Amino acid sequence: MTQSLAFELPDADVSATVARIRLSGVPDDRAMLRAAAELTRDLHTPNKALYWTDCLLSAAIGYAGMATAMFAASPWVAVIGGVIAVLALYRAELFIHEITHLKHSLLPGFRFGWNMLVGIPLLLPSFMYEGIHTIHHARTRYGTDQDPEYLPLARMKPWTLPLFLLVSVLMPIGLLLRFALLSPLSLVFPKLRRLVVARYSGLQINPAFERREPEGEFRRQWFWQELGASLFAITLIGVTVAGILPLRAFLAYIAIVAASAVLNQVRTLVAHLWENEGEPLTVTAQYLDSVNVPEPGFLPYLWAPVGLRYHALHHLLPAVPYHSLGEAHRRLAAALDPSSAYHKANYPTLSGLVVKLAQGTMRQR
Q1: Rounded to whole angstroms, how far apart are CA atoms 280 and 277?
Q2: How high is the mean pLDDT in each 10-residue block of the chain (365 residues)?
Q3: DSSP per-residue letters across 168-226
Q4: In this structure, are 147 and 204 located in the same domain?
Q5: Same domain, 213 and 331
Q6: Angle at 211 between CA 206 and CA 214, to 5 degrees
Q7: Is residue 275 part of a domain?
Q8: pTM (2 decimals)?
Q9: Which of 269, 295, 324 is the last residue of a domain?
Q10: The domain containing residue 351 runs over which residues?
Q11: DSSP H or E stretch at residue 36
């Protein structure tokens, strides 16, 4: 299998290789785009059994770990349970990404089942991502000020990275307040409702982005998901205040949700190079600003599960299910010439990318 030059370098050299990529004016690699379309035509159908089994098993393991963290008598057993819960529930949560791209007729009932089992109990109903993530994939919006999931982090001040991570630590508290307090109040105060929809109803990192009111079928989906999350948040706070749920158990829940959010935030840091300065890019330039961490390597299965280790490839083929991305990568890597842009978005590890990003911010002082 053909690999990129960066794949053969130690982490210390990855930063220098990445830094030489310039996005402005990069033309489309027509051969790459044509191969991506032609070689993967048979990979677009989701495997229903795999989706359900993977999601249900991840959730079951995660909730078992969470229960252990909440109620185990031994602190060490509780910590082990917590670690298992973070990793398993993180994997279950990331099916929200698949829900956003799926044709729901190909996997009937999955969105409803995921929301009932994962989205609502973890205060991450799918409406928080649906309608947001697709904008990130829009040809003319990626990397611009209209992209809800993009900030030029590599060109921002050094303090932005720790702040970026701190926000994720506070995420479960913010979600509790959003659903237990702001949702009910916004039903009474229309101006607050407009604010809640625009600013506090999406998993976005661009603070300038404002969301529009939902319409049609999505409005109905939004309503029942928000209602479910609000009832869950109010109940969780109520049983804790009443002493029915021990404070330790409540704090364990908060810690597990926060740790999953931090893990996802770290993954987000290396999902792109964050080099764009706000201009529209070609598809190839968008691909080069994104990151694959392909096989071999076990750790990406933990920090970038559900196909997200192939994030750059996903930007070429957003409709390919997560379980087919590995095969799509193998086909393209074998078929495309070493000079193809395809090989330039493949990197060996998380650490080199984090170092490169940190170095980029240090140059902005």
Answers
A1: 9
A2: 31 42 78 95 96 98 98 97 98 97 93 98 97 89 90 79 89 97 96 96 92 94 97 98 97 98 92 84 91 86 93 95 96 94 87 73 65
A3: HHTHHHHHHHIIIIIHHHHHH-HHHHHHHHHHSSS----TT--PPPP-HHHHHHHHHHH
A4: yes
A5: no
A6: 150
A7: no
A8: 0.90
A9: 269
A10: 5-46+282-362
A11: helix 30-38
